[in-house]
Structure formats: C-alpha cells, structure tokens
Specification:
Layout (H helix, E strand, L loop, with lengths): L1 E12 L10 E10 L2 E7 L7 E7 L4 E4 L1 E3 L11 H8 L4 H6 L4 H10 L2 H16 L3 E7 L6 H17 L3 E9 L10 H18 L5 E6 L6 H13 L5 E4 L7 H7 L4 E4 L5 H10 L2 E4 L1 H6 L8 H7 L3 E3 L13 H12 L3 H7 L2 H6 L17 E4 L5 H5 L6 E5 L4
Parallel strand pairs: 1-4, 1-5, 6-7, 7-8, 8-9, 9-10, 10-11, 11-12, 12-13
Antiparallel strand pairs: 1-2, 2-3, 5-14, 14-15
Helix pairs in contact: 4-5, 6-7, 8-9, 12-13
Length: about 400
C-alpha cells in the first residue's frame, strides 16, 4: 500500500471510542496519504506499506492533535490593569462601572484594525500550537455591532490561513450589552437576530452560534430567539451556561440539541440529565474557575452518573481566563475538578472534537480521519496532565505535514 508518510516505533493513545482506556497500542505505526490516516495500529499487524518518508519515533508517544474547543482569542487590548485593581480590592462591579470589563475590551476591539487583531492574536495562538493544538475554536463577541463582529470573525478566519491549523469560528453577538444599547436587552437581541446573524451567516463567517445565558448577560428567552434564528440558517449552537447562577441554561442547550454547554459550575441534576439525554457535551473551563476565584465547582459527579461527555478547553480570553496552555487546563481540570488522566486526554482530543461537531474527521487516531498528531517526549500519558509549566511536545503534525 502506497502512502505519503509513515511513523514507526511509537506508542499510540488512539483515544478511539469503544477502546479500553486511551486505546493504547504498543509498537504502534501510523501511515498517512493525502493528509488522512490510512492505517493506525500495531506494526506487526500492518499491511505492506511503502512511503518516501518514514519517521522513527524512537518509542515516543503519539496522541491525536489537541483540540481547543472554546476560546475568545481574537480581541484588542488587555485587562491587566483590571487584574491589578482586583488584587487591590476593587470589585468586578466597581471596575465595570468605571468602564472596565467586557466593554473595555469591546472599545479596544472596535478601535483595532483587522490586521491588528490578527497580529495581536497570533502570539497567543502560537503558544497553543506549540503545545500540540491542531484545531482551534475562536469566538467573536467583543465587537457587539455588525461591522466589528464581522471584522473579528474575518480575523479569526485569517489565522487559519496563516498557521498550519484548523480554525472553527463561532458568532457570539449575544455576549454582552454595548453601551449604545442603553440597557435595552430585547432591542439589542433583535439587532443580533435581524441584522448581525443574517449578515454573518450569508457571508459564511461562522460555523456555529453561541450566547451568554446569565443574569449579567441574557435570559433563556432572549437566547432562544437567537437560537431560533441560528436554526433558520442551519447553524449549530452552543451556550455559555450556568457559570455564575442557575438560570436553566443547561435545559435550554438540551432543548436546542446544542453541540456543547460550557462552564456549568451551577448546573443541577435536572440540567445534567437534560444534557445527557440530548447528547450535549459539557465543556469544562478550569482556567476561568481558577482566575475568577470561583468556589462552586461544576457537578462532575453528576455528569459521570448520567453519562455526560466531558471536554476541556482553555477559554482563552482577556478578562476571566488569560490562559494559552491547554496542558495547564488539563492539570487544572484534574486538580480542581478531579478528572482522571483518561478524561483529561480525551477531553482535549475526542470530546473537544465532539463539542465542535467535527468528531467524524479528527479527535482520535483512526483510518479516514485527518492525520493530526501530537508526538510527545513522555514515558506515560499521565505526564501530559501531571506536569506544570513544562511542554514535552516533540513534534506536531497537521494533515499529514
């Protein structure tokens, strides 16, 4: 069988569904042709394979390329000064009243050119890529008007052309209230539904639609209006749900068969049951939990009991999770939320791909999927979760290259 490249002498964590644990294969071999895997498994069971390029992995581990399924990584400015103010005792409300919070990032994002947004995001993206990320979700939500939401989404799309990386974009117009809305949430949601979302969809700028369902953001009824409009355009939805309070966001996500419900610190058992029945992935964001000093943990035991799939993401954003390390996010998920090593590794590969609706072509090592690989200098997969501030990536492969 002819292929483009073969990786030999590796230990594989295929993370394939139905396999025990992480789907470990000793003496593993992967063969790729035209960017896709055509064989993965034991070298002793492989068919006859020929390739111009063969790589001896010398016993290193290979996992699927990592998937960061929740980021806000395109934005203007930063909020380091607000961080200082919080350390000095200022409350979030005081900072917001003084023009801080999401509105401060909105102003900086509106002032930035598309080129400046790309240039500002690339170092953050590069930090994730350097840790083996091969698929990255990027949300808008800091423009909060049509022109600037489109600008942010165009910048996100461009990043996928500037780096060997798959980028999926999410329209998050229902993120916060811009000052010009004068507090009229219903009128702003009407603008999201009738002006922004149709224009974004017709331009092909978004792969999904998100919203922030929270007391400081939008009600379930307002979010439902956005989701109904997204459904009209054939766009899948996801939801920031139950982060700060219990509003029924989990049930809302389940009702619309969302790809994912994210945060979920305040979700209760009925909400978790609804997610499980609807097949909605729970995306845990330990970086935000840590950074805002949250004390109410997401109900992981309930998620286990009811069989909810668990993904992990960086939530990279300027205000509540200025994190650009998916490896650290795994460690936080283990130490703060008590996830196992298997759950952490699956959470940034298979389940993160599921949360983006792209598990059919990435997230595991299986024939037919994109050949997105992370090759690690480790003795066992637990090292990916156990170590802090250390990057053991040896090589990264995106679509066979």
């Amino acid at each position: 069988m002819q292929c483009d490249r073969i990786w030999r002498g590796a230990r594989l964590a295929t993370v394939a569904e139905g396999s025990p644990g992480l789907g470990i294969v000793e003496d593993g071999l992967i063969a790729a042709r035209e960017g896709r895997i055509i064989y993965v498994g034991s070298a002793s069971a492989a068919p006859t394979l020929t390739a111009a390029d063969e790589v001896d992995c010398e016993g290193r581990w290979i996992t699927p390329g990592l998937v960061d399924c929740h980021t806000h990584i395109v934005y203007g400015g930063n909020r380091a000064r607000e961080f200082e103010l919080r350390l000095e005792g200022a409350s979030y409300e005081e900072i917001a009243r003084a023009g801080g919070g999401i509105v401060s990032t909105m102003r900086a994002t509106r002032e930035a050119t598309e080129e400046a947004l790309v240039a500002g995001a690339l170092p953050r993206v590069d930090a994730l890529v350097a840790e083996g990320v091969t698929t990255l979700e990027i949300k808008s939500g800091y423009g909060l008007d049509l022109a600037n939401e489109q600008k942010s989404l165009r910048a996100a799309r461009r990043i996928g052309g500037l780096r060997p990386l798959s980028v999926t974009t999410t329209f998050l117009g229902a993120h916060a209230m811009p000052p010009e809305a004068a507090g009229d949430k219903d009128a702003y949601i009407a603008r999201v539904c009738d002006e922004m979302l149709p224009a974004v969809a017709s331009a092909g700028l978004a792969d999904a639609v998100d919203a922030f369902c929270e007391g400081i953001a939008f009600t379930p009824e307002q979010v439902a209006r956005v989701f109904d409009k997204a459904r009209n355009f054939g766009l899948p939805v996801k939801l920031h749900a139950e982060q700060l309070s219990r509003l029924g966001g989990a049930e809302l996500a389940a009702r619309y068969h969302a790809l994912s419900a994210d945060h979920l610190e305040h979700a209760d058992e009925p909400g978790i049951v609804a997610l499980a029945k609807a097949g909605v992935v729970a995306v845990l964001l330990p970086g935000a939990f840590y950074f805002v000093r949250e004390t109410h943990k997401p109900p992981v035991e309930l998620m286990h009991r009811h069989g909810v799939k668990l993904a992990i993401a960086s939530d990279s954003n300027p205000g509540t999770s200025p994190l650009t390390s998916l490896l650290l996010a795994m460690n936080m998920a283990a130490t703060l939320f008590r996830l196992t090593v298997e759950e952490c590794v699956a959470g940034v590969t298979r389940e993160a791909a599921r949360a983006l609706g792209c598990l059919d072509d990435r997230g595991t090592l299986e024939p037919g999927k994109w050949c997105d690989l992370a090759i690690w200098d480790i003795e066992r997969p637990a090292e990916l979760v156990y170590r802090i501030g250390f990057n053991p990536l040896h090589a990264r492969v995106w679509r066979g290259r």
